[in-house]
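help with this:

***
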Amino acid sequence: MEKTILVLMLLLLAMPFVTADTNLFDGDVGVGQSVTFYGSDNTQNTVLIENIDAPNERCLVNIGGVSTWVSESDEAEISGFEVEIEDVDSNLCEVKISPKENQRANVAITSLEIVNVEPNSEGFYFVKDGMEVKFLAELTSDSHVNDLEWEFFNNGYPDGEGATKDINGKIDIGIGVNRLEFSMVFRESMDEIYNSGSFITVLVIDPEGDKTTTSAGMNYRGISVYTEGDSGCYRYRDPAGHLIDAGICEITKKERDHAITKVVCLAKEEKFDVGNKVYDVVLTNGLGVLRVNGKAIAGNPYFAEDFFLEAEEYSSDPYCFEIVLGCRGSDCDGSDDEPEVEEEYDDDWFSNSYYILEEGESRTHVVEGIKHTVNLLIVEDVSPAIATFEIDGEVTWQMIEGDIFTNKVDGFKLRLHEITLNRAFDDEDVDKNNGRIDIVSYQIFDEDYDGEGGKRDEEILYPQEEIIGTNCNNGCYVNHNLNKCLPFGTRLEYEGRQSYCNLDGNLLSQKEDGSEASNNYECRSNSARYGVCENIKEQQSAMKAIFGWLSRLFGGN
């Protein structure tokens, strides 16, 4: 036994000293011979000497199916390894193989799902308050990676800002598809963002970027979880503002239970005494338009700051609707607090003014005695960035910069000017969304605006200089639906108006007869002579009369 130990000690002393950063292989390999070695991640690899060019002192080295000539005393990268030839003779190559410096794996999260809860018919996951939810993620990689860090947030996208809980761990992954399983308990009280028990989760791998070169968007993935807690959410909005069976809580069951139901018939006013307010409701016409306290209501259901309203046709003769009107927020508790007076603005149509809104904020515009409320529902960090508004109860589509939305009730128009993502705030505001928030700027204008000096035909419909990244150097950018750069002089109908692409890159309304014009395409008649738009029909009538006179002069009929 003692003799055996002594022999082992002598063998150990005879071996070269190896550190964590030493070579993966260092030895002689004969021509046509292959030798197995192990990478730093314990993966098995094979080096093969396919050929030897002794006169030029080089060897043809094959690793992982890739062959490369390597000269003596030179280095080459083969299949992610550093290869050096230290000596060459007619039949042998002395090969040294080491790990490539700063080698990184390409890793992506290809899927994330909940395995112990079935989604509802619309694909949303509802869980009981306090339930442990089990998740399964699939990761793909082109390399073996040990101790890859991951982190999971219950709310916060994509970096966990706003999350109230997170879990983390490490995983060893191999080439191909890998599985990551974890679980988290969800409680309604943890939702400090929406206060409705709804969570937009996010899983992040390699958060510090130490071991991967994953492109943005592939190292994180989320899934929404909705708790069924004491608040009893009755209706939800999705991130785009549409009413669904999941999302941000819009009405609680308590608020719904205190709603008042009445039948309102055409032109007859009904009073709803809800919470600490009285609402006058009138059905104004046969199209089902309702007015609450004099304000036209668009959208069903409709949600205001202090009340919500649902309407359903009750009878056709007489024309009546069944109205459900309920209180929201502090107005439900019957408190004697004075309602906050909403700030109003006296605004001009299509002025050069730009109005700023933060995500979740609203602003009231009073134009020609009519009040309009603009609410910025959500801003989404996609490419291009999109924003969704609610205008007088009507939810817009997902708008990009330059889009124009027209309210169906009275033609109120909003143009989205610019979206600013993750705007930083001053120190005094750092408590707001961890010091960062998304904002937008917009303009408002009337469809009957005549423009400066009453020249409606000179109105700029789509200012080219305000469009970023459209690359319309030789034409006009129209909108994201067409996504076109139209050539100068193109005639088209835009926003219900006969328009043309002007030489300055702006889209203008076509001019009426008698207006000054330099080109035919500027005119509705498509005819400009002597610098003036002409009436084609009048020209044709005049020419017909002249030819008739000439015909009779020369004996014709």
The helical segments are 2-14, 253-257, 536-553. The radius of gyration is 36 Å.
